[in-house]
Write a structure and sequence with these properties.
With 187 residues, the chain is mainly alpha-helical. The chain has eleven helices and no strands.
Length: 187
């Protein structure tokens, strides 16, 4: 399984190309790897772990669903491939600015939270890990935006509670800790 995940990581890294994390010079792939590692603490389902590595590929790169499917079919059986691709699609934001230019951020995020409430429990589990990783350092790197982002994450978490409950609890605690740190920094 580790060899397969390494190949999927390399595929995702190549897809993200020269992208870096917003607040650091780290290659973008560090985020999906951390998300996968968080998920790995709760599951050994290769489809979930693969989706964690690929969760931003459709949203943030020109890579297509077909390209992901074709790549995964070389590594996984058809059922695992299908499940992974479904999870990646569920984790891909739909209500993005380029497709909804007339909507403000609040409306897009509200609609996205509603959509996320309908995704499967496995995808919600990956979303918890994604939120945790994204919230881990935001207070340190962008105090101005952190309040908005952390409150968006809390709103999402209120609507997505079907995933792994242990990870859900950790995600809520992580976001609440970020809100507390933000309050302390603003004093």
């Amino acid at each position: 399984m580790e060899e397969i995940l390494e190949q999927i990581k390399n595929f995702a890294d190549e897809a993200h190309g020269e992208q870096t994390r917003k607040y650091t010079s780290d290659r973008y792939i560090v985020h999906p790897v951390r998300v996968m590692n968080i998920c790995k603490e709760y599951t050994n389902d290769i489809s979930i772990l693969a989706a964690a590595l690929l969760h931003d590929v459709l949203e943030d790169t020109p890579t297509t669903k077909i390209e992901i499917e074709n790549f995964l079919m070389k590594l996984m059986d058809a059922k695992q491939t299908e499940k992974t691709v479904e999870l990646v699609e569920e984790l891909t934001d739909v209500f993005v600015k380029k497709d909804y230019p007339g909507w403000n951020r609040h409306k897009r995020k509200e609609k996205e939270a509603e959509r996320l409430s309908t995704i499967c429990s496995e995808a919600q589990t990956v979303k918890y890990a994604d939120i945790m990783d994204n919230c881990a350092e935001i207070v340190d790197h962008d105090i101005g935006f952190a309040g908005i982002y952390l409150h968006e994450c809390l709103a999402i978490l209120k609507k997505i509670n079907k995933g792994d409950q242990r990870l859900y609890k950790r995600a809520v605690e992580t976001v609440n800790r970020g809100v507390q740190q933000l309050g302390e920094k603003k004093k």
